[in-house]
Amino acid sequence: MTASDSNSHADSVVRRRVEDGIGIVTLSDPAHRNALSKRLSDDLAAAVEEVITAGAAVLVLDAEAPVFSSGGSLDGLVDRRHDLSEMYAGYLTLAEATIPTIAAVCGPAIGAGVNLALACDVVLAGESARFDPKFLDVGIHPGGGHLWQLSRRIGKQGAAALVLCGDVLTGSEAAACGLAWRCVPDDELTGLAMRFARRVVGRSPDLIRRTKQTLRQSTGFTEMGPALDLELKAQQWSVEQPYFHTRVREVQDRIARAR
Questions:
Q1: Do 27 and 62 form a contact (C-beta atoms < 8 A)?
Q2: Helices 205-218 and 224-239, packing angle to 10 deg
Q3: pLDDT 10s digits, 89-147
Q4: Is the pTM of this model over 0.85?
Q5: Residue in 109, 154, 107 with CA at minimum distance from that of residue 135
Q6: Shortest CA distance to 217 belongs to which of 198, 242, 234?
């Protein structure tokens, strides 16, 4: 899949393309504030799967301005033609991606829209970003593992402040408390996300996937021992790979030339 392939999904509310190993997935329903309708959720799931199948080594998620995502479609929630569990296809596919995922958040991320950021490995925020769970304001309990994900990022107190007390984080505040990794001016956000993505592309795809798998598995450990064992197995695997020997020779050659 290349940049031109995005034209084959003209009727989709999620654009997708792969450029130089980077999958770029864009929420593209600004008329509905990129609300997580069943259609957008299903399109997002398909887009994530397609860029991975097309060979993307990393995925960048962004959205058409001015709203990153206004959360769950209120019409869909009232209509109830679809079970609530069916509304999370896009979010879950993103959360379960085997490649690194980077959210580039400009504008408000509201309700379930915050989930999309939480589903990604790294969150980068523009100065216009606003993180506002807002579930309780519309009379609905948080869903999609929102409280669990949020607590892991900013702690139980932070989750309570946002969800129970209705606090809202700006992009810079999100970066300060760990919900986002960095906050930059909006016009610098895409460049920053692409710089992060290109660093991923420059590394072994197998090693990247294995490292992400280890990171995911080890986050539930409460003691060092299981983490040491898990990482040792992965490290032993890595030193047996051709990529390791190639990289070591490159480093040794650079050192020799510098002498």
A1: yes
A2: 170
A3: 999 999 999 999 999 999 999 999 999 999 999 999 999 999 999 999 999 999 999 99
A4: yes
A5: 109
A6: 234
